[in-house]
Amino acid sequence: MSFGAKYKKITQIIKDDLTRLEEELKSEINLYPQLNEVLSGFLTSESKRIRAVTAFLYLRASGYEPDERQYNLQTAVEIIHSASLLHDDVIDECDIRRGKTALNKVFNNKIAILTGDYLLATALDRLNKLSTPEITALCAETVREMCRGEFFQYFNLGKIPTIEQYLKKTEQKTAGLFRVAIDGAMKLSGSLNTQDAADFALAFGTAFQIRDDLLNITESSRLKPSKNDLLCGIYNAPVIFSGSTSNLAEGIEKTKNLLNNYVIKMLCLTDKLKDSQYKTALRELLELLNDV
User: Fold this and answer.
1) Domain 3-289 CATH assignment equals 3.30.70.330
2) d(CA 231, CA 93)
């Protein structure tokens, strides 16, 4: 069974949650007539919804039922992620996003940036409705850290960073938003101890990015060109472990070991959850991360 088929099977257990999320996203597509169709295709096109999937599974595995506030939070997280992609496409001069022509190429950079800004404002409105300053503050700091990660990446193009710098950048650019989704969901639920959720989220987001960086080296995809990071001078774990941009075999194996270490850490954290179909699905998702 392919990765996609396995992932789809896992998500079936929370299909109602994901359907509600899609409805919430569609409700926000009301910018301008010429933009709406393109934005609709962008927001609802092929996407893993991995942050929401992980959050809903973790929340339900912890014994909590999503309510309107939880859907607001996950919609806000997904919108922030989408806004960051629109801005990234301008920065990286991308032509393709999620298998379709990038919005900055359909229109221009100005429209793409404005659309991203509009989405960020929409997410802020969603967060405001939660009336939970702690989550709003966490989200604001996460967006700042995403920018800091981009700054580090830009000013270090063509340089091989240390593994510690790479992991810090990964936490800033990717893992932080997973924390908002998962730790934020647990905070909204009223859980008194959310440290395990925060640890799980940061580990998952880091592992997810490590896996993506491995695939960027080892596979080609219609959604993302193979080795595009390498060609742009962005050097991730396989290059760091190899010490060069060639002969990456050893670096790839060490990166797989690094990924597995994060998976093991998360499996240990899920041991604390009560047995349920959601815990089982969550652990299956963790095992799937190693499918690379």
Assistant:
1) no
2) 14
Token pair for residue 26?
A: 């569609």
Full 3-state SS string of 84-137: HHHHHHHHCCCCEECCEECHHHHCCHHHHHHHHHHHHHHHHHHHHCCCCHHHHH
How far does the chain reach from its first CA to its final CA, in angstroms? 13
On whether the pTM is more than 0.90, the answer is yes
d(CA 103, CA 211) in angstroms, rounded, equals 26
Residues in the chain: 292
62-72 burial code (b ≥16 CB/10 A, e <16) = bebebeebbbb
Beta bridge partners of 117: none
**Token couple for 219:** 């596979």
Distance from C-alpha of 120 to C-alpha of 80, rounded to nearest angstrom: 6
HSE-up of residue 214 (Cα within 13 Å, Cβ side) = 22
How far apart (Å, rounded) are the C-alpha atoms in residues 38 and 138?
31
Give the dihedral sign, CA 284/285/286/291. Answer: positive
* Spatial CA neighbour of 57 closest among 2, 18, 3: 18
Q: How far apart are CA 207 and CA 270, in angstroms?
A: 15
Q: Where are the domains positioned within the chain?
A: 3-289
Average pLDDT per consecutive 10 residues, the chain (292 residues; last block may be shorter): 88 96 91 87 81 98 97 97 91 79 89 93 95 96 96 96 98 98 96 92 98 86 61 94 93 97 98 96 96 86
Q: Is 63 helix (H, G, I), strand (E, B) or coil?
A: coil
